[in-house]
Design brief:
73% helix; flat
């Protein structure tokens, strides 16, 4: 539209320009008026077209707005429907969720209750299992202890006892222990042993122990106090006398009996056979005289047994046996101490050797300043002194300070090699009397246990028991005193070698570097 206005103005000006030189003023005014009217008409038409265009656009916009409004309300309606459906679904789901939450809480409580009950049951079962294991362990220990004591116990029925106890031990050591069967076997063995203790017996049996086992004998047994056997083939007699020794061996066979003792035992056994073979009448006596050491005095026992001269080996074995089980660690300590002493003696004799010829030859090479030859000479010897002197010669081309450091390092390396295992040797000398004291205490405890169980009215029995208990103390001191003396000798030798190392190394340092040599 502005383009048309501009064109009309241009045309009007052009016509005015062409008309001006030949037209009059009046005509010009009319033309101008007509031109203005034309321009106004053109402008009016343009405005009408614009209005029509705007009206048409407005109508289109109104239609579009109406359609959008209709669509908006349609969407609002659909949204309202969806919201209502969503709310319905939400209410339904909330109801279901509430029900499920209630059910879940109830199930959780039941599960926790079941879990607590299960844990309590498991804990109780575990406690019962631990108690059962502890009880089964006690049963096994009792069976094993009894098995260990059977060898020194009454020999009659020993094989049957060993079988019963071994079977009971097998039942207790199963992967799933049969403790009831183990206890039953153990109690059966105790009852059998108790029955043997408080019963008497006479009859033909097969001997189980003694100088002639597995032979037919007539056996007379009075509890566990007396057992006499007379062989059927040649009438040899053997008896079981209760000794009460401290080593735990309560029963001891006496096969080589004196003639008088053998005759008395044979008479007692034959008399028991006579009484058991025929009905005893009123005039017959039912009493049998049995030779028995009631006080269990070892002096009486020795007097009724054949005495023979013992060799030095047998005397040592008897002495060793008197000390009990502690004699074994004492013997081990003595052997270890002897080996340590021999090892240290050999090491010090070789490693700590101070060879005068070697020192003279080394001094000659150093005086001639043949330091390499001197170093090679030290390497060939491989003693503590040669290694220390080599540390100085190895730094002959260096400063005195570095040579001194090298010397200190060599001394620190060699001194532990010389003093190695000396502390262990001293410990052996300290342990020996302590073990002897332990054996003495153990022996005295055993002595009083025997006295409590058996009783005695003879002071010689008590004195003999104490003398046996003191055997370990004697043995401990016999071992400790020489060990401490040997330790002192070795310590003095080590001190002498160490002192010589310091003297020779300092002398070589002064010869090589001089007393006041500076860089």
């Amino acid at each position: 539209m502005r383009f048309l206005q501009s064109t009309a103005v241009i045309l009007m000006l052009a016509s005015s320009a062409f008309a001006w030189p030949w037209s009059s003023d009046k005509k010009n005014a009319e033309d101008e008026a007509r031109i203005k009217d034309s321009l106004l008409q053109v402008e009016v038409r343009n405005l009408q077209r614009e209005v029509e265009t705007l009206t048409r656009i407005r109508m289109q916009k109104a239609d579009s707005l109406e359609k959008l409004d209709a669509k908006h309300w349609s969407n609002r309606y659909a949204e309202s429907q969806m919201t209502e459906e969503h709310q319905n679904k939400t209410r339904e789901l909330d109801g279901r969720y509430s029900k499920l939450s209630t059910d879940l809480g109830r199930v959780t409580e039941e599960a926790m209750s079941s879990k607590n009950v299960t844990e309590e049951a498991e804990e109780k079962a575990k406690g019962e299992e631990i108690s059962f294991d502890a009880f089964n362990t006690q049963v096994k220990l009792s069976i094993e202890k009894t098995l260990g004591d059977v060898a020194g116990d009454y020999p009659v029925g020993m094989n049957a006892r060993l079988l019963r106890l071994k079977q009971a031990n097998i039942e207790a050591e199963k992967k799933v222990p049969n403790t009831i069967a183990a206890v039953q076997g153990f109690m059966d063995d105790l009852l059998k042993r108790h029955e043997v203790t408080y019963t008497q017996f006479y009859g033909a049996e097969i001997s189980q122990v003694g100088s002639r086992p597995d032979v037919n004998v007539n056996r007379l047994r009075m509890g566990t106090v007396f057992l006499g056997e007379v062989a059927n083939d040649n009438g040899n007699v053997q008896a079981l006398m209760r000794s009460g020794a401290l080593q735990g061996k309560v029963f001891e066979w006496n096969a080589n009996l004196p003639t008088e003792m053998a005759a008395n035992i044979k008479q007692a056994v034959n008399q028991a056979g006579t009484l058991s073979g025929s009905a005893a009448s009123a005039s017959q006596s039912a009493t049998i005289a049995i030779p028995l050491d009631v006080l269990q005095n070892k002096a009486i026992k020795n007097s009724i047994s054949d005495v023979k001269e013992l060799t030095w080996t047998e005397k040592f074995k008897a002495f060793f046996k008197k000390g009990g089980i502690v004699m074994y660690p004492l013997a081990l300590v003595a052997i270890i101490a002897l080996l340590l002493f021999l090892e240290r003696l050999l090491v010090l004799s070789y490693r700590g050797k101070i060879g005068r010829r070697f020192i003279k030859k080394l001094d000659l090479l150093v005086a001639e300043k043949k330091y390499d030859d001197a170093a090679m000479l030290c390497l060939k010897k491989e003693t503590s002194l040669s290694m220390v002197l080599f540390s100085v010669l190895n730094k002959v081309n260096d400063t005195r300070e570095n040579a001194e450091r090298s010397l200190q390092e060599a001394l620190l390396r060699e001194q532990p090699k010389l003093e190695r295992r000396m502390g262990l040797l001293a410990a052996m000398g300290t342990i020996a009397p302590l073990l002897g004291l332990l054996g003495t205490v153990t022996g005295i405890i055993t002595l009083f246990t025997v006295i409590t169980e058996v009783g005695t009215n003879d002071a010689r029995v008590l004195a003999g028991g104490i003398s046996e208990a003191l055997v370990t103390t004697e043995m401990g001191l016999v071992i400790a005193i020489p060990v401490m003396i040997l330790h002192g000798l070795l310590s003095e030798k080590i001190e002498k070698i160490t002192s010589e190392l310091y003297v020779q190394s300092t002398s070589l340092m002064n010869k090589v570097f001089g007393k006041e040599k500076v860089d």
